Amino acid sequence: MTVVTRFAPSPTGYLHIGGARTALFNWLYARGRGGKFLLRIEDTDRARSTPEATAAILKGLEWLGLDHDGEVISQFDRAPRHAEVAHELLAKGRAYKCFSTQDEIEAFREAAREAGQSTLFRSPWRDADPASHPDAPFVIRLRTPETGETVIEDEVQGRVTIRNDQLDDMILLRSDGTPVYMLAVVVDDHDMGVTHVIRGDDHLNNAARQMGIYTSMDWPLPVYAHIPLIHGPDGKKLSKRHGALGVDEYQKLGYPAAGMRNYLARLGWGHGDDEVFTDTQAQQWFDLSGIGKAPARLDFKKLEHLCGQHIAMGDDAALLHELEAYLAAAGLPALTEAQRDGMARAMPCLKERAKTFPELLEKAHFVLTDTPVVPDDKALKSLDDVSRGILAALTPHLQSASWTREELEGVTARFAEEHGTKFAKLAGPLRAALSGRSVTPSVFDMMLVLGREESLLRLGQAAASGAE
């Protein structure tokens, strides 16, 4: 059997972080088993569904690197097929026409509430003789068993049992002939060949009602896996007060997609003690049994740690490409050709200990700035008269050095020893002169990236900056 999973968001806004994790779990499960990962846009709510929201969802999935198979399915476009199934159920006697009006249903529920009885509506038309049907608008309702139980064998939640007398005869087709969401989901999943429905546990109760459609149509049931929702660090339902909710915000904050995938995979799922892993490992390891039942908590420190790990082990060219995408998403100026070349040369020394792209860019200031370098306030403190004198004395020694790391380290070490000091005393002025910042990559890395001519130019300008 070929595994087929799907992600089916409603296009009413951005791609939520919880939806992104659901998509990731479906993607990992399918990709790790040589299966298919399908995408369906559940756009039946025409009042709230927008093309802009659909575009935002597709863009979010693209940024996360969650590629789908085949064309994107529009649920709204399949409404005739949904109605066809409702009429098929009607023809089989597994659904019926209900002529009860909204006023009649509400009157029934009001009376039930006053009597302290169940407000679950039982249609008087369920077993009515078709000959008695009036010439009036009607809905089509599913004929749900009135006794027994519906059992959901869920891969995450375990065995969930619901008494059938707790389930109503749900509407399949409204009086205007339009299908309801619950019917559309089942028909789409069946027609798309979905074998595994992996979704949030807020849909768990829906599964019991949707199973009624499957069994009434004699269709095989999918494997269900209802995953817990994501909570904020305080254990409460995720909301705007906890910070970023849409994946587009995470891209604009400068988190790398690989780190985001790693973090989301670990958010509610685990593989032993493994924290940092590649996509290939995640696809090989991911299974439904590793998903916990308790809600996962968002932890930004852990997210930053994992993102830092992925930046450090990322491919240099790929990181530069994603960095440029970050700049575009965040509305920041694009790199010039010279800056891009500098970033490409510097990337090996930039990606260590940078947790986000803004941090990486801050470390890259030495290749992004022009000469003369303007030091910030912290760096300026390292360029007093004594420090500038040291730079002036050191520069001639560097001018005659071969431009290798070993030689540069040797020259500065000998210079420090001859002047009765330690390299740590030279590091601050060198950082300030080369980059204008106090927190930078190694001064030797910066010299090698900048090259002999540019490095000596900056050191000379810094040494002369105090002279009037």
- By CATH, the topology of the largest domain is Rossmann fold
Strand order of the largest sheet: 1-2-3
- Total helical elements: 19
What's the N-to-C terminus distance?
81 Å
Structural class: mainly alpha
- CATH architectural arrangement of the largest domain: 3-Layer(aba) Sandwich
- Poorly predicted runs: none
Strand count, sense and barrel status of the largest sheet are: 3 strands, parallel
Rg over C-alpha atoms, rounded to the nearest angstrom: 32 Å
| % residues in beta strands | 5-15%
Instruction: Count all strands and give the number.
Output: 12
What is the domain tally?
4
Highest-level CATH class of the largest domain: Alpha Beta
- Provide the helix percentage: 40-55%
Mean pLDDT: 94
General form: elongated
Question: Overview of this structure, please?
Answer:
The chain is mainly alpha-helical. The protein has four domains: 4-74 and 231-304, HUPs (Rossmann fold, 3-Layer(aba) Sandwich); 77-227, HUPs (Rossmann fold), CATH 3.40.50.620; 314-368; 377-464, Arc Repressor Mutant, subunit A. Helices cover 48% and strands 10% of the residues. The strands form five sheets. The protein has a three-stranded parallel sheet. The chain is elongated. The mean pLDDT is 94.
Summarize the structure.
Its EC number is 6.1.1.17. The chain is mainly α and 468 residues long. Helices cover 48% and strands 10% of the residues.
Task: Itemize the secondary structure elements and their pairings.
Elements: E1 4-7, H1 17-31, E2 36-41, H2 51-64, E3 73-74, H3 79-92, E4 95-98, H4 102-115, E5 139-142, E6 149-154, E7 158-163, E8 171-173, H5 181-191, E9 196-200, H6 204-216, E10 223-227, E11 230-231, H7 247-252, H8 257-266, H9 279-285, E12 296-297, H10 300-312, H11 316-329, H12 337-350, H13 357-363, H14 365-368, H15 377-380, H16 385-399, H17 405-418, H18 423-435, H19 443-464
Helix pairs in contact: 1-9, 3-5, 5-6, 8-10, 11-12, 12-19, 16-19, 18-19
